[in-house]
Amino acid sequence: MKALLKACGSISKVEMLSPLKSHILANTCVAEASLPYAHYYGQLPLKNAQPNSIFLLVKKFYFLEEILALSLSVEKCLLDKINFASAILDFNGKQIPAVRIKFFPDYDQLQSLQSCLQKEGMEFLTGTDISGNVHARIHKLFVLEEVEPGFYFDQQETNKGYFLHHHRIPVQEFETVLTTIRNNSSCKLFDAVQGKFILDGVVKEFVRVFAEGINLDLMKCIQEQFTKLAEVHKNKKMSAAF
């Protein structure tokens, strides 16, 4: 029997955000990811009637356990399948707290959700529009199936897998490694981000892979290339230091 586990952790990624101007409460600020999985689908926004990842900008940072508790309080809004997460957005040299929402049914219900959260004490940020590339740190609950030691499939989101990695590398180097793998390996098209979660009390670094029809062979292909190239970049950096 394959192991199923739940773990708290975070994803670090660059999101292209655009402000929402309709279907929201007055004097609040909401942004939406306009180019999800851009490296996979290209640089044109997907035509989707349902919202993508939505970020409700708030006045204070909420820890993940606070967000999950709030999500239970607003079940009366018929949002039992909505995925809530806590987030920090780096924008124009400032860190802006936000609540990240996925699997939202439609834009028309967004104002209702905000009202429910407001009644529970959430205060929304005003006068701040976010647009463009933003570095986002998203704190969330993962539900994973371990298919082999160090390899996992997401049980809440399709087409996503994870493999453990020993060392986190800087954002620019990470993007360089991914570009090299895409252009010079047999691994098929994919998108990937870095993150970490806590397993058995230990922080584990991972790479999350997105690809339609993802399987273990693809993840192993990417992991092998990633480990090799990350080591090359590490050695170059050490050589430059001398």
Automatic annotation (TrEMBL):
It comes from the Bacteria. This is Uncharacterized protein. The lineage of its organism: Bacteria, Pseudomonadati, Bacteroidota, Bacteroidia, Marinilabiliales.
